[in-house]
């Protein structure tokens, strides 16, 4: 593991993907694996950034620990999603900043 080797690690969450109860990504082959509701995506990103739980694929609560949130560029409406997420994070008091070693 990178952390055990003394390397800096930034955990990444995915804005537009569903998570299983175990904290892994739902397979893209399954319905609902890729999220397309911008309000849901924004809400989940703010929850992840502030340490609040999100709803997993089985309807339970899951806390995703991450220092980075990925908005896939090939997702329909990615630019608008990224803008909305950035604005919502700012409104929630979350600082968006580059990684530093």
Brief summary:
This protein has 101 residues and is of the alpha+beta class. Helices cover 26% and strands 10% of the residues.
Describe what you observe in this structure.
There is one protein chain. Strand 2 (54-55) and strand 3 (61-62) form a beta hairpin. The protein is 26% helix and 10% strand. It has helices spanning 38-49, 78-91, and strands spanning 12-14, 54-55, 61-62, 68-70. Helix 1 (38-49) crosses helix 2 (78-91). It is built from two helices and four strands, in the order E-H-E-E-E-H. It has one domain.
How far is it from the N-terminal to the C-terminal residue, by CA?
Answer: 18 Å
Q: Structural class, from secondary structure content?
A: alpha+beta
Task: Give the DSSP E fraction (strand runs of 2 or more residues).
Answer: 5-15%
Mind telling me the C-alpha Rg?
A: 14 Å
Residue windows where pLDDT falls under 50 for at least 5 positions: none
Count, helices: 2
Which percent bin holds the helix content? 25-40%
- The largest beta-sheet arranges its strands as 1-4
The total number of structural domains is 1
Strand tally is 4
The overall average pLDDT, rounded, is 94
Helix-strand string? EHEEEH
Gross morphology:
globular
Sheet having the most strands: 2 strands, parallel
